[in-house]
């Protein structure tokens, strides 16, 4: 009790432990603030119905960061009490190595799934294509992702196999429609009719009014006119079908024909001449 060096060493250890815990708390606070900022930025880019997923990921990241920092702090505190950390770290390393070798694919799936959600590559409800599979995302798990195709099949894909993803639900898309007008028709009049029809088109999926680009191609049977329309993500097939219907009705009302197969026949008369007819 009267050993001055003992008390000095004890006081130094206590001060170092307090300093370690203080630095630990400051580190946890900084990391949590950074994660909250990232999560808020991600939530702003997604609908409110999908914000809970990013909030969940943010909590998971904060918990993982806290555990790692507290683990390091605990090791440093134990070292202050003279406990040899070598055997503990060696045992943890061997255990982690054994788990890593025994579950490589599982670890890969989980890590990939975590980064899919973290980087917001796609979300539930998005239409995506990965490899040969295309459909609507139903579930995003840490190990697998479930996609339902438009014909009803459900594909369950391990996250580790998702190498390339095409997301059709983020940006607006273009509906492209080509309509062919017969050679016998006046092209300028046909273009005027098409422009009037497109100007009056109303649809909830339209972002901007359809644009008539003009003559796209001249073929043997007619002239092809191209129309484009900017629409909401992944709605271009539905809008293209509506454009085709409206164009057909308008062309019929204005008496503008589209090319169709024709046959010309020749009839020989009694005098050996040729009389043609269609």
UniProtKB/TrEMBL annotation:
<feature type="domain" description="Mechanosensitive ion channel transmembrane helices 2/3">
    <location>
        <begin position="63"/>
        <end position="104"/>
    </location>
</feature>
<keyword id="KW-0812">Transmembrane</keyword>
<dbReference type="InterPro" id="IPR010920">
    <property type="entry name" value="LSM_dom_sf"/>
</dbReference>
<feature type="transmembrane region" description="Helical">
    <location>
        <begin position="14"/>
        <end position="32"/>
    </location>
</feature>
<comment type="similarity">
    <text>Belongs to the MscS (TC 1.A.23) family.</text>
</comment>
<feature type="transmembrane region" description="Helical">
    <location>
        <begin position="85"/>
        <end position="107"/>
    </location>
</feature>
<dbReference type="InterPro" id="IPR049142">
    <property type="entry name" value="MS_channel_1st"/>
</dbReference>
<dbReference type="Pfam" id="PF21088">
    <property type="entry name" value="MS_channel_1st"/>
</dbReference>
<dbReference type="Pfam" id="PF00924">
    <property type="entry name" value="MS_channel_2nd"/>
</dbReference>
<dbReference type="InterPro" id="IPR011014">
    <property type="entry name" value="MscS_channel_TM-2"/>
</dbReference>
<feature type="domain" description="Mechanosensitive ion channel MscS">
    <location>
        <begin position="106"/>
        <end position="169"/>
    </location>
</feature>
<keyword id="KW-1133">Transmembrane helix</keyword>
<dbReference type="InterPro" id="IPR011066">
    <property type="entry name" value="MscS_channel_C_sf"/>
</dbReference>
<feature type="transmembrane region" description="Helical">
    <location>
        <begin position="60"/>
        <end position="79"/>
    </location>
</feature>
<protein>
    <submittedName>
        <fullName>Small conductance mechanosensitive channel</fullName>
    </submittedName>
</protein>
<dbReference type="InterPro" id="IPR006685">
    <property type="entry name" value="MscS_channel_2nd"/>
</dbReference>
<keyword id="KW-0472">Membrane</keyword>
<dbReference type="InterPro" id="IPR023408">
    <property type="entry name" value="MscS_beta-dom_sf"/>
</dbReference>
<dbReference type="InterPro" id="IPR045276">
    <property type="entry name" value="YbiO_bact"/>
</dbReference>
<keyword id="KW-1003">Cell membrane</keyword>
């Amino acid at each position: 009790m009267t050993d001055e060096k003992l008390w000095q060493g004890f006081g130094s250890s206590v001060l170092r432990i307090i300093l370690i815990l203080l630095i630990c708390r400051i580190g946890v606070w900084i990391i949590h603030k950074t994660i909250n900022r990232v999560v808020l930025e991600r939530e702003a880019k997604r609908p409110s119905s999908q914000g809970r997923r990013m909030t969940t990921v943010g909590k998971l990241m904060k918990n993982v960061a806290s555990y790692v920092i507290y683990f390091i702090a605990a090791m440093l505190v134990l070292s202050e009490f003279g406990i040899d950390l070598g055997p503990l770290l060696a045992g943890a390393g061997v255990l982690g190595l054994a788990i890593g070798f025994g579950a490589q694919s599982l670890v890969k799936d989980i890590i990939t799934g975590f980064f899919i959600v973290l980087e917001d590559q796609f979300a539930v409800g998005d239409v995506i294509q990965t490899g040969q599979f295309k459909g609507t995302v139903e579930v995003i798990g840490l190990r697998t992702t479930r996609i339902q195709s438009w014909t009803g099949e459900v594909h369950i894909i391990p996250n580790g196999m998702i190498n390339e993803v095409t997301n059709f639900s983020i940006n607006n898309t273009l509906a492209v429609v080509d309509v062919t007008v017969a050679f016998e028709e006046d092209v300028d009049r046909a273009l005027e009719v098409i422009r009037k029809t497109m100007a009056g088109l109303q649809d909830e999926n339209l972002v901007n009014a359809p644009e008539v680009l003009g003559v796209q191609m001249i073929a043997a049977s007619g002239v092809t006119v191209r129309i484009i329309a900017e629409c909401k993500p992944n709605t271009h097939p539905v809008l293209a079908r509506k454009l085709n219907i409206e164009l057909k009705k308008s062309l019929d009302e204005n008496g503008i024909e589209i090319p169709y197969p024709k046959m010309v026949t020749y009839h020989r008369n009694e005098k050996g001449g040729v009389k043609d007819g269609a």
